[in-house]
Recover the amino acids of this structure.
């Protein structure tokens, strides 16, 4: 095969591809090969040429079709085997295989423990969280929250220029510092990649936090977290223009304070989240 392809490819390249030494090739070139072996070598050479003609983008199906169009009788399995042995794979297919492998090796997502029941009688027992984005003239500012369902208090929040796992762990750290989050706490979220990451999974495991996730593409499964964002934007952010992320961050901090300590909540009997949190904590 190398003898046939040496007019199109350097001998050293062909030897490297086929896993033989250059000196070994020259020694072998003086030997007579069997007809079946020569047929396989000729076919291998044609596969390499067809793959090269496709600029390295064709899979075994297209290579087989190209050979059949050139009146080379061969089936897909034979071509697939030759391409596998030579390591001939397009960059797009290689990336697809890697993504498929990563998905197969990823741990299964947590089940939905809430089933849209966003009630709780104990502070810190059930938390919900999500990420939203805020437009500024510097670029997006991302906000992650941790909300207690019993009191509706925003126990933790964090902002940043990037939507990373560190963003949600910073918000969770703030919630942990309140002392209301204990081992056995349920944290409910959507299927965002940050919440599905191994880093966040390990983080929750270290703190004894039980993860819960709603169904994919179902915003209503995390309605309690989405409601806070809706109030934040309709009562504050949508009416302002932020020239910098810093100004937007300041407004978020001020609104969270207002939401927790001043704003009356109909679902809490027109009391504030902080008042409800204190009441439930004293009654515990």
């Amino acid at each position: 095969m190398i003898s046939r392809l040496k007019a199109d490819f350097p001998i050293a390249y062909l030897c490297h591809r086929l896993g033989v030494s250059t000196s070994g090739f020259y020694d072998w070139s003086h030997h007579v090969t069997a007809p079946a072996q020569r047929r396989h070598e000729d076919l291998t050479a044609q596969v390499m040429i067809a793959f090269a003609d496709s600029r390295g983008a064709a899979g075994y199906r297209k290579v087989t079709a190209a050979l059949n169009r050139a009146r080379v009788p061969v089936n897909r399995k034979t071509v697939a085997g030759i391409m596998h042995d030579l390591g001939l794979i397009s960059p797009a297919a290689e990336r697809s295989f890697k993504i498929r492998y990563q998905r197969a090796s990823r741990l299964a997502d947590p089940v939905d423990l809430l089933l849209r029941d966003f009630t709780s009688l104990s502070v810190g027992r059930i938390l919900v969280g999500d990420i939203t984005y805020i437009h500024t003239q510097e670029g997006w500012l991302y906000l992650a929250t941790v909300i207690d369902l019993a009191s509706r208090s925003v126990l933790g929040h964090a902002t940043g220029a990037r939507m990373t796992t560190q963003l949600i762990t910073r918000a969770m750290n703030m919630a942990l510092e309140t002392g209301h989050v204990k081992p056995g706490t349920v944290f409910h979220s959507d299927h965002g990649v940050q919440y599905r990451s191994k880093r966040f999974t390990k983080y929750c495991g270290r703190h004894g936090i039980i993860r819960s996730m709603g169904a994919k593409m179902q915003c209503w499964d995390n309605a309690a977290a989405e409601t806070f964002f809706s109030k934040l934007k309709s009562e504050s952010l949508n009416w302002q223009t932020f020239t910098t992320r810093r100004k937007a961050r300041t407004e978020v901090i001020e609104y969270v304070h207002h939401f927790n300590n001043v704003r009356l909540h109909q679902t809490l009997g027109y009391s504030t989240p902080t008042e409800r949190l204190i009441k439930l904590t004293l009654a515990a």
